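Q: Given only this backbone (149 positions), what sequence would you predict?
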């Protein structure tokens, strides 16, 4: 592809020319990007499976109740819950001022939120915001779990 470098300052032309030499043209780059969808999909599926396995192992280890909601949302909700809660533990306990007793109280609140959609909605939240988010959860987000386990 031909590029017009006349609008560049003289001292910046050589660097841009070297950079352009090592790049595909826009059309070639788009074609390569679009033709590689199978490997991207395989990579994404493998990554999701790995995240799902970690979320299930974590939920079992910390006795988290199963989530409720549409079948398609359950796996996403489990991954979102795992990511948010581990980020919260890191922010509040590992790097913050909370002790294990404070965390145990929060963990009990975490167990009450059973709606997968709630966890999906909070997926972009900061871990340090989890206590406030749990306090704001509506009654329809709380599951029907027996509190006397």
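A: Predicted residues:
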């Amino acid at each position: 592809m031909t590029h017009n470098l006349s609008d560049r300052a003289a001292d910046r032309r050589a660097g841009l020319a070297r950079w352009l030499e090592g790049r595909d043209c826009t059309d070639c780059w788009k074609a390569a990007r679009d033709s590689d969808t199978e490997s991207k999909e395989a990579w994404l599926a493998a990554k999701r499976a790995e995240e799902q396995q970690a979320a299930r192992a974590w939920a079992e280890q910390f006795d988290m109740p199963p989530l409720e909601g549409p079948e398609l949302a359950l796996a996403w909700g489990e991954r979102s819950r795992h990511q948010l809660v581990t980020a919260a533990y890191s922010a509040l306990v590992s790097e913050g001022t909370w002790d294990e007793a404070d965390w145990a109280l929060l963990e009990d609140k975490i167990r009450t939120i059973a709606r997968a959609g709630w966890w999906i909605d909070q997926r972009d939240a900061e871990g340090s915001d989890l206590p406030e988010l749990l306090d704001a959860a509506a009654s329809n987000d709380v599951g029907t779990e027996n509190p006397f386990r």
